[in-house]
Write a structure and sequence with these properties.
Layout lengths: L1 H32 L5 H5 L10 H7 L2 H33 L6 H13 L2 H11 L6 H8 L11 H29 L3 H9 L4 H12 L1 H16 L3 H6 L11 H11 L3 H26 L5
Helix pairs in contact: 1-14, 3-14, 4-8, 4-11, 4-13, 5-8, 8-11, 9-10, 11-14, 13-14
Length: 291
Amino acid sequence: MRSSLAGWCFAGPAVAVIALFFVVPVAAAFALSLTDFDIYAIADPANLRLVGLHNYVQLLRTPLFWTALANTLYFVVVGVPLSITVSLAAALLLDSELARFKGAFRTALFAPVVTTIVAVAVVWRNLLHTRYGWINHALGAIGVAPIDWLGDPHWSMPSIILFAVWKNFGINMIIFVAALQAIPRELYEAARIEGANAAQQFRHVTLPLLGPTLLMVGIVTMAGYFQLFAEPYVMTGGGPLRATTSLVLFMYEEGFRWWRLGSAAAIAVVLFLITLAGTLIQLRMRREPAS
């Protein structure tokens, strides 16, 4: 009893903070999604009405919601594995014995993470410009015709994914570097003695020991990529032809352009449930089978 009380005393402040900044906002968003909260309710709370699940039903009838959901899933399904792969590859290079000036490279590769996303999004928008961008200029030097990276619905989302991977892979790279350095070198030496080559060492030694780290990085990266907003907002405005409109951008438009805050809260709840489902799926896939 005494040890249980001591445990709650230590965990109490953390639990209180989680409840204040997570449980309460989620509950408030769900409660708001059951109302028709709009600009008139902001002026006079007496105009607020309880509408039940009407906002959710209306979302299912809105084609733009399904477009935004498809765009977001496309961004997550393609961007998350690509980001993790690039992060892990960079970490392996930095952790190898062949890498020189590791500190300088880590700083350079981590720099995009700490830069302002709006500023670098503007820079990338100029780099991807059809006529004046350096990327098309470099492609033109080898005979490739200019590509409308941000104005073509087929290229706009891949361009945003490329930018997001460049912007975010540094934080995962640092996590992977720390995890790789925690792997005992004796395991690699034993594998080499047994005749394992570099690929076999990576498959049978590195990947299994990186399992918990990969799970954590996968969950955090997935949650971040589901919140796609600044990149399309700055670079494309959700276009062309709504090809880059994400759920968060759609939620922003519903809440702060059309002042349908109840509908925006419903989108937030749906996004929370989708993210939670994705997290549970990853946890279930990682869970070892019972012996």
